[in-house]
Amino acid sequence: MLKTVTFAICHFSVAFSVAWLLTGSLGIASLLALVEPLVNTVAYYFHEKAWDGIRARRQRAPHHASAGRHGFSHAH
Question: What distance in Å separates the CA atoms of residue 55 and residue 13, rounded to the nearest whole number?
Answer without folding.
Answer: 35
